[in-house]
């Protein structure tokens, strides 16, 4: 009996490793570093290479990680620290120095994006400085001759929307028009996507009565018809709500020439910059959510489990191969959050359980990265 059990465990481990060793395609993994038990940057990059993970999101420059990425084929979305945004906005020379220090110094790192801030609250003291920082960063990237390779954007939360149901009626909060409209105009004129963190988990725990767990976990055959349009999963619905909101803002906006750019429609779509489901930590509603995605009523069971995290993450990597009802021909790009659990991350307990690997490098659950 013991021998048989050992054989089963070995077979499961082999399947787990085999399933991870597949080309990533449009899926990357965020490298969050808020932990005191994480492996070194060199070991982490080696893990990306071992499992053929081709994209990384790094939230701030980190010299050991940039050095470890040199010469690899891992595409990097590099973040700007919140503490740098004010100076980047007010002093163009700071943006030039930032690009020199964090980009040009690493010519063999495959940079793809720069995210100026992650989920900055527009009403915070940093809110007014996000766009000027983006503009100065873009100019610095352009002056370095890298604007064709590196896109400059910012990452937002979906709670900037006033309305998300039905998805076709998605709208940003009117009170935030001063913030979001100039950013979207800038992104349109630089042919860049808005980065959006899409978390069906948060939508679900805030409205369990009206959102079915299977719909939130992106399970096959769990779709619903929303205002005459069939949605296979909640992720698609959230992406389309953001894209509808973007289109509404830009519909009457003329192209800008403030950066000396060639006018054009540009890229008016969003791009998923992170998503996942926590594997532990419970979950409590953090505020009222818009009612709408009715597909049944779930029991008040524990939802932050390893099994649900496995289901969500694997389904996410499956569905990004296809477009949404609003943009059926567009492959989605997203980054799984995160590589490891981060035991020093603030907030509710579940915030510290989003990792897909344990700190020792073992996968938390079987994953399959799709082409």
Task: Provide the fold topology.
Blueprint: H1 2-20, E1 27-31, H2 41-50, E2 55-58, H3 63-69, E3 75-80, H4 85-90, H5 92-104, E4 110-118, H6 130-143, E5 151-157, E6 161-163, E7 171-172, H7 177-189, E8 194-197, H8 200-206, H9 213-216, E9 224-226, E10 229-231, H10 234-250, E11 270-274, H11 306-319, E12 334-336
Helix pairs in contact: 2-3, 5-6
What order do the SSEs take from the amino end to the carboxyl end, as H and E? HEHEHEHHEHEEEHEHHEEHEHE
**What fraction, in percent, of the residue positions are helical?**
25-40%
- The total of helices stands at 11
- State the major sheet: 8 strands, parallel
Overall, the morphology is: globular
Question: Would you kindly provide a brief summary of this structure?
Answer:
By secondary structure, the chain is an alpha/beta fold. The chain is built from 11 helices and 12 strands. 42% of the residues are buried.
List descriptors.
371 residues, alpha/beta, 11 helices, globular, GH, Glyco_hydro_17_plant, glycosidase, signal
Textual characterization of the structure:
The protein is an alpha/beta fold. Helix content is 33%, strand content 15%. It has 11 helices and 12 strands. The strands form 3 sheets. The protein has an 8-stranded parallel beta sheet with strand order 11-8-5-4-3-2-1-12, with helices on one face. The protein has a two-stranded antiparallel sheet with strand order 6-7. A hairpin with a 7-residue loop joins β6 (161-163) and β7. Residues 1-25, 256-266, 286-291 and 293-300 have low confidence and may be disordered.
């Amino acid at each position: 009996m013991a021998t048989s059990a050992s054989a089963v465990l070995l077979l499961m481990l082999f399947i787990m490793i085999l399933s991870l060793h597949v080309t990533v395609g449009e899926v990357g993994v965020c490298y969050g570093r808020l932990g005191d038990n994480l492996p070194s940057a060199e070991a982490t990059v080696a893990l990306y290479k071992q499992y053929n993970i081709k994209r990384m999101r790094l939230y701030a420059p980190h010299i050991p990680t940039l050095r470890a990425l040199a010469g690899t084929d891992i595409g990097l979305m590099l973040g700007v620290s919140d503490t740098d945004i004010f100076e980047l906005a007010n002093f163009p020379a700071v943006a030039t120095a930032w690009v020199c220090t964090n980009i040009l110094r690493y010519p063999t790192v495959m940079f793809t994006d720069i995210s100026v801030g992650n989920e900055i609250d527009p009403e915070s003291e940093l809110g007014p400085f996000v766009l000027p920082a983006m503009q100065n960063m873009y100019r610095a990237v352009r002056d370095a001759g890298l604007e064709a390779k590196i896109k400059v954007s910012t990452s937002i939360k979906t709670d900037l929307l006033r309305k998300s149901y039905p998805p076709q009626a998605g709208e940003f909060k009117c009170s935030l028009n001063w913030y979001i409209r100039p950013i979207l105009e800038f992104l349109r004129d630089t042919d860049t996507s808005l980065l959006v963190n899409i978390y069906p988990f948060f939508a679900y725990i805030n409205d369990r009565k009206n959102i079915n767990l299977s719909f939130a976990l992106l399970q096959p055959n769990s779709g619903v018809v929303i205002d005459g349009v069939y949605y296979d999963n909640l992720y698609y619905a959230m992406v389309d709500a953001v894209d509808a909101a973007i289109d509404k803002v830009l519909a009457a906006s003329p192209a800008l020439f403030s950066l000396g750019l060639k006018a054009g429609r540009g890229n008016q779509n969003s791009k998923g910059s992170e998503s996942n489901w926590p594997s532990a930590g419970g979950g409590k509603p953090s505020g009222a959510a818009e009612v709408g995605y009715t597909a049944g009523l779930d029991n008040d069971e524990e939802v932050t489990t390893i099994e649900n995290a496995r289901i969500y993450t694997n389904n996410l990597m499956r569905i990004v191969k296809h477009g949404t009802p609003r943009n059926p021909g567009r492959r989605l790009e997203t980054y799984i959050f995160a590589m490891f659990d981060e035991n020093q991350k603030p907030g509710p307990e579940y915030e510290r359980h989003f990792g897909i690997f344990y700190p020792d490098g073992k996968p938390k659950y079987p994953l399959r990265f799709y082409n």
